[in-house]
Amino acid sequence: MEIKLTFKQIKMALYATYLTNTYGFKLKNAISSQEKKDLRITYATTLLNKLNITIKVNNKEKLPHDGKYLLVSNHRSVIDPLIIELAVQDTNLFGHWISKKELYNSLFFGIFVRNGGSILLDREKKQMSGFLSDTKECVKNGNSIYIFPEGTRNKTEKDIGEFKEGAKIIAIRNRLPILPIFIRTHANDTLMDSLKGEPKVREIEVEIGELIDFKDKSSSLEDAYKKHFNL
């Protein structure tokens, strides 16, 4: 199928590529977690401002200010990591994103992902011991772990896709409380509207849920997440 891009979309794609790689190189020189957090927030703010997209956080009082967590979120768009960064920007939380091998090798995201604080998930590997060791090292250094438990973007009409088992395993192995966040607005629709519509401000709503105990065996992580957000 032939895809025709408008001048505005081409211009935005070029700008986003430039911005992403610029901050990717800046992150390479960042030493502390706080430096990386500040750069990630500035990057997210700059790009979303360019798109005229704002983030509204509901139940913000439920966000922990300090500590280490497994942050889990639904996933519908390429800007979801930016949305999450801004949702928790007023806390001291800093997380390493679980990132697929495809992102590490991406011409668009690769430099940013490799330098910004991430843990490589190579699904082609049969043994996951190296990956689990990386998560343990991350937590040992005082950081949280951020993950989209659906494993990939949800392109269906359902609120969320099926959760993979790996997220709960990461929480249990690292004894991490689980921080559920739900991007309630269909962020991909908002992004597409921004790229093709009139220049107006568009808002994305994010909802913070109650912490989930990693030791809780009464329901699956997916069911607990759905219950928290009435899905």
Q: How many domain units?
A: 1
Helix content: 40-55%
String of helices and strands? HHEEHEHHEHEHEHEH
Oligomer category: single chain
Looking at the overall shape, the CATH architecture is: 3-Layer(aba) Sandwich
**Overall pLDDT, averaged?**
91
User: Which residues form runs of ≥5 with pLDDT under 50?
Assistant: none
How many individual helices?
9
Biggest beta sheet attributes: 7 strands, mixed
Number of strands: 7
Question: What is the CATH first-level class name?
Answer: Alpha Beta
Rounded to the nearest angstrom, the distance between the terminal CA atoms is 34 Å
CATH topology: Glycerol-3-phosphate (1)-acyltransferase
In terms of structural class, how would the helical and strand content be classed?
Answer: alpha/beta
Widest sheet: strand ordering: 1-7-6-2-5-3-4
